[in-house]
Amino acid sequence: MTALCLALLAGCGDGSNKTVAHVGGDAITTKQLDGLVSHFRTQAQRDGKEFPQDGTRAFKQLRNQLLSLLVYRVELQQAAVRLGVKADPNEITRRLGATGSGEQEGDPGADTFARDSVEAQLLTEGIFAKVARGVKGSAARNRKMAAFVARLQRETTVRYEPGYKPGS
Known about the structure:
By secondary structure, this protein is mainly alpha-helical.
């Protein structure tokens, strides 16, 4: 595990927790991105799948795609704050227990992917309930939410540091 952490830090320049993207006024750091990369690397190893080697073009493309996921989650969090939507910590714990993720709350070295995914799902559900309130029919509600997400992504200012933009 220590070797993995050192390898990840080595891929981040000086090992500092620098910002790789700004979403509105919120920063996404190398620590957050490295944690997500580590999660998927570990998952690939568990599944017996290959994971791109650090520094390769394939690795950079995958890393930047994972950064897109972090950007989307920050956009959701910002929209949730504006709409007054919160993820209930008890519901997060309940859903984590139902998935059997084994994730421990408060463990600073823990892989937080499962927890963050559950939180994002709860925020999405809360946002959907507010955005689609009063709209009849599931197709119409889904269109309303899709339009909301498209507008959210169009109107949110996202700035990537050099070398981190998805597709670069």
